[in-house]
Amino acid sequence: MEKVNSVLIIVLLLIMAGCVGGSKQATTDDFIIVDVTKSYSSKKELILQDFMDVEYIVLEMNDDFVNQGFVQDIGKDIILVKNRNDDGDIFVYDKTGKALRKINHKGQGSEEYTHILNIALDEDNGEMFICDIYKRKIFVYDLYGTFKRSFDHKEGGGSMFYTDIFNYDGDNLICYDEYNEEIAFVLVSKQDGSITKEIKIPFKEKKLLQQSVKDGDNTLTVSPGPYRRIITYDGSWILSELSSDTVYTLLPDYSLRPFLVRTPPIQSMNPEVFLILRLFSDRYYFMETIKNVYNFDTKEGFSRTFFMYDKLEKTFSGYTVYNGDYSTPKEIYMNALRPVSHEIESWQRLEAHQLIEAYEKGELKGKLKEVAATLDEESNPVIMLVKHKK
Predict the structure, then answer these.
(1) 361 SS3 class
(2) How far is CA 367 from CA 227, 298, 384, in A?
(3) pTM of the entire structure?
(4) What gap in Å lies between CA 127 and CA 146, rounded to an integer?
């Protein structure tokens, strides 16, 4: 690790000495370098289906299966969905969107959760792992809703709760604790929650993308919305610790390989400009910067710059991505996509009433037109799955 850090320091010194200019930011054979202070006047227009595969799933609706379509995880045969509100409902669908069962164990009992932040699916073992940040526990149920066990989140080092959890392998989850001051990424035993591996990403001081203000005896904290620190890409795990200048790939032997480096150093910035990763394809990396400034009086702030890196041309630029299943331009907002797994890169929900309106106006084509023809105003949202091209 010391050798890697020395290389990165040399690279950053070269950048700060003026070796990078225009949209052709510095690259190495192994990782790219991102200047978070840049803006991009040039903008590329892309069609999502040209570089990713897209699939649409209609979530069956009946009296028990009316939901808001917030996908939690997707396996080979199962999709787990919840509502945005905190009602505790978990909807189990098969991969065609057929309703299988609804589960709800919200409550104060020892086998019940009080809140669902996110859910990780272990389809091979027939289990789902529910992250409850209020109880600071992970509750484990089988796919029929039978309680199996629970275990606590990590303690110590400023830890509060896991904000990201993913199914890592047959024995472990990979988790991120945003508030841990030293080691936020950990592999956690699925059986008892014990830490099987700590993944240390070096940084000087913990930085948080949020702003707080005192409101009487209370503290009001705001943040710019959801983003992942763990991203699946090309069979690997990409780990993004905002307090570090380097984003790493976690290798099978648990070592870290630099994936990209940001500049200027985050520790040197006040206010900070954070780098957020969104979606990676074989050619394009989509990302954004967010300035850590918020006005509590006007309720405005967290300004963003959206851009992408083209691996083929080795250039950065702005972008607009369109859904190719519309006959008129329909932009896809890449920060609305949510990572899922190694098989499914991301997902996005499409509201039924909006699809029906577009269908009636003759704005749809292809697969999406066929899907919209089956909907009515009361239908559940349609789930768009975004996958790597085969």
Answers:
(1) coil
(2) 29, 43, 11
(3) 0.89
(4) 9
Spatial separation of the C-alpha atoms in residues 206 and 262, rounded to whole Å: 16
316-342 residue pLDDT tens: 999 999 999 999 999 999 988 888 887
β pairing state of 230-233 and 218-222: unpaired
- Tokens of residue 236, six digits: 């690997």
Tokens of 273: 């400009």
ω into residue 339 within 30 of 0, thus cis?
A: no
Residue 172's CB is within 10 A of a number of other CB atoms, namely: 19
Indicate the helix (H) or strand (E) that contains 13. helix 2-14
- Region class of 216: left (phi > 0), else alpha (psi between -120 and 50), else beta: left
Residue 293: strand, helix, or coil: coil
Could you tell me how many residues make up the chain? Answer: 390
Q: Which helix (H) or strand (E) holds 349?
A: strand 346-350
Q: Which helix (H) or strand (E) holds 33?
A: strand 32-35
Cβ count near 126 (within 10 Å) = 14
What six digits make up the tokens of 21?
């200019």
Tokens at 206, concatenated: 């913990």
pLDDT digit string (tens) for 273-287? 999 999 999 999 999
